[in-house]
Design brief:
Blueprint lengths: L1 E12 L6 H6 L1 H4 L9 E12 L9 H18 L2 H16 L3 E7 L13 H9 L1 E7 L5 E7 L7 H16 L3 E5 L13 H20 L31 H12 L9 E6 L5 E8 L4 E9 L9 H21 L6 E2 H14 L1 E6 L8
Parallel strand pairs: 5-6
Antiparallel strand pairs: 1-2, 3-4, 4-5, 7-8, 7-11, 8-9, 9-10
Length: 363
């Protein structure tokens, strides 16, 4: 036998309150002939049919398959493949600490724009734009935002919009990071950079709580490289020092007299757009060295010191260059050529950090 239930209900909806993609989807139902928005009631009937015979073929099998395909296509358009990976990685971190992650949240719902004194352009922008991902704590308090920047974010108009969003988030003191696909690669001791940022955020909170509770001395400074365990059986490698294994290997090379310095060196500054620029090097002999140049976007993410993280990331490229130089795959650079490049960095960028070993002396 067949059971049939018909549910009818009325609702009012307004064209003015819909997001742009919903405005397009409902334009035919919410505009008059002249294109002006207005409100009107709409009756929707939902037909739910349940079969008492599970083996019976559906009466509209082809149509049901079409509806299923449409539903899947709509979901695939909501988050692209990179955004889906981003969401899954954030969810893995937040679920472990009782936090939450949301996607495509309107910017005006993240920051208190009403009567805030921002410009009309900024106010309108906050109503029409969204943050890609919002992370909250267990009480739904905003923690930080994540923006995924694909190839279109290199276009001038999109750059302008990104800077407008950055300025608004910064004005209201909302922490955020901007990532690309490289932040999703599990390159660093099996860890990706997005997970690193999110993990360190909650590690810093746990550190602060322990410090307030008297479990950690009040003058102790939070440094994720000093953390040996988070107490969870999650299989993560500790300490949370992502370049420690490579730096130990450089120490081994020094002990075996393959290189002239026991640890890598770096100089990091920021350019006129607030991006971090890094020069990292190691002398193989007193007169020759290898160096690499890398960089990272500036983030408003107080849990992570960008220069400290970048110095660790640079070791990955530097270690690879050292191995290639030792087997003759790439040439080394003279001391004079390196010092000229270092002077160029010191002239062009505002220094943020530097570290390493003294330059080896000429015999």
């Amino acid at each position: 036998s067949w059971l049939q239930m018909v549910v009818s209900f009325h609702f009012w909806y307004s064209y003015r309150g819909l997001e742009p993609h919903l405005q397009r989807a409902h334009a035919g139902h919410t505009q008059d002939e002249d294109g002006d928005p207005f409100q009107r009631p709409c009756c929707v009937s939902v037909l739910v049919i349940q079969s008492g015979n599970e083996n019976r073929e559906p009466r509209h099998k082809g149509r049901d398959r079409h509806f299923s395909d449409v539903r899947q296509n709509r979901m695939s358009r909501f988050l692209n493949s990179y955004e889906e990976v981003t969401y899954d990685k954030l969810r893995a971190v937040t679920e472990a600490v009782g936090a939450h992650v949301f996607s495509k949240v309107r910017l005006a719902d993240v920051i208190p724009v009403n009567n805030s004194g921002i410009s009309n352009e900024e106010f309108t922008f906050s109503l029409k734009s969204h943050v890609d991902f919002l992370v909250t704590d267990s009480e739904q308090e905003v923690q930080f935002c994540v923006e995924f920047d694909g190839p279109t974010h290199r276009q001038p108009e999109q750059i302008r919009r990104d800077e407008l969003k950055n300025n608004l988030l910064s004005r209201f003191q909302v922490s955020f990071i901007r990532i690309n696909s490289r932040y999703l690669e599990e390159r660093y001791r099996g860890l990706d950079l997005l997970t690193y940022f999110a993990d360190v955020w909650f590690l810093a909170q746990a550190f602060d709580e322990a410090q307030e509770g008297g479990q950690i001395p009040p003058d102790e400074i939070f440094d994720p490289t000093f953390i040996l365990s988070d107490g969870q059986p999650n299989g993560k490698k500790w300490p949370y020092w992502i370049s420690v294994e490579l730096q130990a290997d450089i120490q081994r090379m020094f002990n075996e007299h393959l290189v002239a310095q026991p640890a890598p060196n770096h100089w990091i500054g920021i350019d006129d757009r607030g991006n971090y620029r890094c020069l990292a090097w190691l002398f193989l002999t007193p007169d020759t060295c290898v160096f690499i140049e890398t960089g990272m976007r500036g983030h408003r993410f107080p849990a992570v010191y960008s220069s400290d993280l970048l110095s660790q990331l640079a070791v990955y490229d530097l270690h690879q260059a050292i191995e290639k130089a030792l087997d003759g795959s790439i040439p080394t650079v003279s001391r004079d050529a390196f010092e000229s490049r270092l002077a160029d960095y010191e002239r062009r960028f505002e220094m943020r950090s530097s570290g390493g070993c003294n330059l080896p002396r000429n015999e």
